[in-house]
């Protein structure tokens, strides 16, 4: 557990404030166990409650912790500190960490039990710091380098890294003293194993190979033994630090025992390596592995029958910076054995094909670099392929900009795309999928080295594109593809048409590039999707704004998305996002570089007075339904003209189908729709009565 001292915003108080996002230890169908914070003598203490312990009070919700997005609420005095102040306190050294609970597992019994940390537990944890300094000083003299990684963390602003704001500046700062002590002890043993093998007469290359596997086994330990790890209460296990392809701040982190056979232990890691080696023994062929740049392959022309590649996904993942997490530890176990591989302080990054934004020239320069290098890579694939050779390229970026760069690179490479299909490759339960509009599918693009038609004229190509896409979209829909994945799969299919030509021109002589292609694809896919979402009817009866709302919910649910993607989705519906978020009573809101679409529960009733737009009427109706204002709701449905028609209810049903069960908007929609036939009858009767008295 990470904690702050309360006297920063409550002078003279000096209480230790726990920083925890939530308190669950076990949250499963048949087992719920939680930490329960309570105040004793002005300090925060904990008890274990739940199944097998004291009952959880009905007024206590373990999912509500003391910190959310660095905003802290003191459980002692109720004071709130903003995120900026919280980070400043870390930078000033006014934060610490303390063990609060212990997870127990009996080797002869199933399941885990829990207890609150004792004074002895805390004492043992604290003693590790003293042992660490002694061990660290001795090894530093023996090795000529700090055994704890002292290399700098990535530059501020690097994608996926925010921990620098919490007084962390080196890779070693990601580990507490006990973790550091354990890890450098393992490093020492790996190095000693190599020395002893040589002393015992082992061949140098054999000893090098064995210790390399030992080092690789060790290199998995830091992933489960850092302050960036998380406790997964749904399975009662530690999750590794890279569950989200980033290293975020972890307020309550677990420690594992690396010498006990469990998740994150050295024995578990070693067994994984041994299992892989055993599988390799059954393969009689010997592969040739080479390390080289994708932009300059060490192979002659027309050499391969097939090439398979999974290139970097634009700006999705900071690959090289994440690899430094492993590099700094491998350098300590193997740097003296493989000096050529570990000659640089950190992994080389200059030629990494990723669109970073923190370098010179910002994001524009990063994008240009990515497209240029990706084009060179595809041109190299074209060069080394035999005539009519085949290549498969996997891509999964969700942004339009990411796809523009890929398509332009492909069009310039000489490869002809002959097929593109989505495959579900991502786990829906992963953190990124839960917290963002992430894709569930990757697009597998199949291309060949063959002659292309010289020039295609845009008017003819666009008609061909419509025919091709309508056939492909129907098949994608039947296969159950939905949301953002549907649009991305449509983009993949469109490349099949455009890629047949060396260039596509309009009648003004302008070369048509990916941005114009994607605009056409988005419009065609939007028209098709709206028809299907509304069950092949009533799409012509809804306005552009309501059409956008339905498509946004279908594509992204309640997640926020980058402005560019929201803007281009809106353009396909003939609306301007910038104008709409300027509306005082609109549902489109801008949050920094992102756009979010508000549900009825997020809009103020005063902002929905006298609505005329279908989606505004629907939101007003849902709020009235929630507050049991039935007469007012029926009158609004009648006066707006929507209550007696089918389109209004079809839109409500379509939006409900796009949202997860736990979503508040879905619950309001489902409650309203359950009584729709009765409501329609009431609207009809009231309409008749109104006309009789006119």
Layout: helices, strands, pairs:
Layout: E1 2-5, E2 16-19, E3 24-28, E4 31-40, E5 43-50, E6 67-68, E7 71-73, E8 80-81, H1 83-91, E9 95-97, E10 101-104, E11 113-116, H2 119-143, H3 177-199, H4 204-218, H5 221-224, E12 230-232, E13 237-239, H6 266-281, E14 304-309, H7 319-334, H8 362-384, E15 385-395, H9 400-411, E16 416-424, H10 431-435, E17 441-448, E18 453-457, H11 458-478, H12 483-498, E19 501-505, H13 514-533, H14 544-556, E20 561-562, H15 563-571, H16 577-581, E21 588-591, E22 594-597, H17 614-626, H18 630-640, H19 646-658, H20 664-673, H21 676-692
Helix pairs in contact: 2-3, 3-4, 3-7, 4-6, 8-9, 11-12, 11-13, 12-13, 12-14, 13-14, 14-19, 17-18, 17-20, 18-21, 19-20
For the largest beta-sheet, the strand count, sense and barrel status come to: 4 strands, mixed
Number of strands: 22
Radius of gyration in whole Å, from Cα? 30 Å
Mean pLDDT, all residues = 86
Verbal overview:
The structure is a single chain. The strands form 8 sheets. The chain has a 4-stranded mixed beta sheet. Strands 2-1-9 form a 3-stranded antiparallel beta sheet. Residues 6-12 and 427-437 have low confidence and may be disordered. It is flat. A hairpin with a 2-residue loop joins strand 6 and strand 7 (71-73). Helix 11 (458-478) runs antiparallel to helix 12 (483-498) and helix 12 packs across helix 14 (544-556). The chain has 694 residues and is an alpha+beta fold. It has 4 domains: 2-117, no CATH class; 128-286, no CATH class; 355-533, no CATH class; 539-692, no CATH class. The longest helix has 25 residues, at 119-143.
